[in-house]
Amino acid sequence: MHKLKINNSKKKGEALWEKIPCTCKKGTIIQEHPYKLCTHCKCKLQWLSVPQTNFIVKNKKGKDIEVKEILLKRGKLEEPQGWEFLS
To answer: What pTM did the predictor assign?
Structure first.
């Protein structure tokens, strides 16, 4: 598979959420993942859910189409909130 083209993407470290430090308290059961995530970790988890390589979808006729490009939807902290494919 090839690297997916992600429109509305930012270079690593440029998004606002990446500049927010992690405030998770490791070792404290009550505040440790998955019970409570800080803003940075929530946004990172959203970024990790965005596909990074081309993928296959079926159209209405059942034909396979390779998705090579997506459009990223961002929130106020520039975190990914969703995406749509552009093929």
So the answer is: 0.76
